[in-house]
Description:
Layout: H1 7-18, H2 20-23, H3 28-34, H4 39-53, H5 57-73, H6 76-93, H7 95-103, H8 105-111, E1 119-120, H9 121-133, E2 141-145, E3 149-150, E4 154-158, E5 160-161, H10 167-186, H11 194-198, H12 204-226, H13 228-241, H14 247-253, H15 263-268, H16 270-274, H17 290-321, E6 336-343, E7 346-353, E8 356-358, H18 362-375, H19 393-396, E9 417-423, E10 428-440, H20 448-455, H21 457-472, E11 474-480, E12 485-486, H22 488-499, E13 509-514, E14 519-526, H23 534-553, E15 556-564, E16 570-576, H24 584-591, H25 602-613, E17 619-626, H26 640-655, E18 658-664, H27 673-677, E19 682-684, H28 691-702
Parallel strand pairs: 2-4, 10-16, 14-15, 14-17, 17-18, 18-19
Antiparallel strand pairs: 1-5, 3-4, 6-7, 7-8, 9-10, 11-13, 12-13, 15-16
Helix pairs in contact: 1-3, 1-4, 4-5, 5-6, 6-7, 9-10, 10-12, 10-13, 12-13, 17-18, 21-23, 21-28, 23-28, 25-26
Amino acid sequence: MTQSLSQVEIEPLLDLYLETEFTFRPVGPVAAALSLLERAEQDFVLDWIRRIATTHITLAFDFAKRAPDLIERFDQRVIEAWAVHLCDTYDRAGMYAALEVAGQVGNFMQQREGHAAGALFEDIAPVLGNFVHGLSGRKLKLEQGDAAWTDGERICLPAIIAALAGRSDNFKLAKAMVAFQWAQTRFGTLRPALQAICATHADPARALRQFHGLETLRLTARLGRELPGLHREMQRLSQQLEPPIEPAWLELAAPLLTPEATVEDSLALLDAAYALPDFPARCYQGELRSDAVAAARAARLDKEKARLRVKLADLAEEARRHKPENPDKPDAREHFEVDTEDQEGRLDFEITLDGAPIAPPDDVKQLLPSVHLDFGQIPPEYLVPAGDGEYDPSLYEDQPADPDAVWQGTYHEVGALFYPEWDLGRQHYRKNWCVMREKEVKPVHDDFPRLTLSKHAALVKNLRKSFEAMRDENRLLKRQTQGDEIDLDALVEALADSRDGREMSDRLFMHMHRAERNIAVAFMVDMSGSTRGWINEAEREALILLCEALEKLGDRYAIYGFSGITRKRCELFRIKTFGEPYTEEVRARIAGIAPQEYTRMGFAIRHLSKLLNEVEARTRILVTLSDGRPDDYFDAYRGPYGIEDTRMALLEARRSGIHPFCITIDKDARDYLPHMYGAARYVILDDVSQLPGKVADIYRWLTR
Length: 704
């Protein structure tokens, strides 16, 4: 067993981590307390002091003082979860909020003694997100919150669910919570005006809780029919955590357990339930927040009515173009009807126009369930096509925030996407750390594309030929059961097997196979300020040449530029999306690529990885064109922090099946690119003028 560190050995480490030369922290008493721990415990505490100090020294010193007591009382995984929570709070809300979390560590630990086996939101969210998306009804977002609840558009879960001893059971409890919140949206709980209804009672909050209890019994029975396996787990978990429901409640709620029961039946029983003792809450039911439900519904109704009526007007116009004119009814108004089938928990809609069934587009398919959930039907007035100019598009279309306007005056994050960032010192992600917006590259309609094609005319001709050859190249398949020629190697092996008494293989042929390409490629172009001049021109020329060649090949490709200045202003510039054809407008955007700010890379890799994974392709490639290492403005991102975040983003991309590659002109790139990309995943060009010709050759090599 390794000997524990003494106070004398610990003090210099604390001096280093806590910068006592400048902060004058009294580390002697802390070192004395830590010297009494086992060596493994000392290593754990010192490591976390160092990690937290990279976030803020005050928080690290506070943790150091509390650590001996925490080590004695709690599992190390619990302490680690609290330490990460402490740093996340500082990231999100600042020092005051973080110190408040530190001061409440006892309550945190007591409430979360099961953390070691708890289900963490960040771990379970991807799985449960897919689970809820597979259920019928409105598409619900899964978000982290202070409790389990829903407003009808999102489901919130707490950061940690740790009510049970086992990690598996805690995950099942989280799944039950999600299913129950979904059931509230799907089976009508959120449809009535709950605030007004409960306001008729002396204690509206208690009336809401009793109504929630009635609905808990109704929906639990409904889930028993829709999801019987999960229902059995819900009952088992409830039996472990809560006392049985009183007979008076079961007797009152008996009508709610039938398949025909609706939310109106629960409302009819509310007065009787109000007279009963408080309903004993079930572990999976969460909270019913009528104010949040009403706010979300109010914002949704008018917008969805306008959106559906406008979409129906588009469908009617499309049908009109394909229908012969009827001189007897020149002004006939189209009549839409919707038949709804609600069976086994699934909502299916059949839409007809003047009695003839039509296939609605995806956006209409998404609107119909949402409207039905709000009303229990599709109201007739929703099925009247909108007249010309009846609605202002701003009333029903989501209006993205102007990505430039948000920087004027007080900064706010409306309309942004958020991405995590790997903190090297903390050895954990900073959640929702990078504030990212997509922007359009302002097109420049000049002669740059034409001049580029003229300047590199011979190269363009060769590229087109070589890419056409790639499109048409064949592959020789050996050891086939049938083919054009004998596979001599396979035949020799088969004859040898026959002589040895083994069965002779029938895979003795070979034939040429036309290789079908199924590739999607995203080009990530460095638009940092350091690309000014020849580098920027070479990048633009390379993209023009590459696009000309790729059009011959037929691969799906997208082009985005990236830049940023601090984590609060991470910008991705749309040049060409995957679904966009290569047009004069795209050429003008390439011509408009201009240097911006700094080279914060992690967010761009994560966002483009997300876009790539939304494309159906057998092979997905992410190619970065850059002139230097990750960097940002007076920021920790400079140096090892930025390199490690970029490396982690690339690892995430590779785990999702994406193949990253980097093309750079930074002569010092050998110091960091092998660590970030790995061997044979990058190329360094000695001369920027080589870029236009080399990038196409590299693409051929990558996609063979």
